[in-house]
Design brief:
With 179 residues, this protein is mostly helical. Helices cover 74% and strands 0% of the residues.
Amino acid sequence: MASTDTAILEAAAELLSQRGYRGMTVAAVAAAAGVSQPTVYLRYASKHDLAVAAIARRPFFANPPDTGDLTEDLIALLTDIVATAETIGLSIIGVVLAEEPEHPELLARWRAAVGSSVLRAVDEIIDRARSRGQTRDDLQPGLVADLVVGAYLAHYTHEGRPDSAWARQIVETLRPGLT
C-alpha cells in the first residue's frame, strides 16, 4: 500500500515537472505508477488533490543560492521561482485559490510545501547577508518574500512571463530598502 502511494506521488511529481499541471493527467500518472486510474482516485478525489500532494513531495528551494552577495542571491532565487512556476504551471495556483472555499486543505498543503519553502529560502539568504553586514538588522525575511513573489505574480498577471532581465530589475529596485 505504501509503495503504491509512493509510486503514484512520484509519478505525479515527475509528470508535473515535465509537463506542467495541464499536461499531467490522472491517466498518465496511473500508467507511470503502474496502477489503475481507480487506484489513483481511491487516494485522490481529483487531479487538483493529486497535484498538490505531489508538489508537497518536491523539495522546492531547499538549497538557496549562496553567492556571497545579497543582491545576487535574491536575483538567483527569484529566477528559480520564475522557472519553477513555469515548470509546474501557474494555473495550479489559481486552482488552489479557487478551491479554497470548498477545499481549504489544498491551500494549506500548498502553503506548507511551496510557500514555506520560499519563506525558508529567503530567511536563509537574509540571515547570511545579515551575518556579512550586507543588510539591515531589522529586515523581515517574510516581507522580502512577499515583495519578491508578489512582484512575480503581479508581473505575470499584468504582462505575462517576465524576460531574463526582469529578476535583476526587481531586486535592484528593492535594494535600497534591503541595505
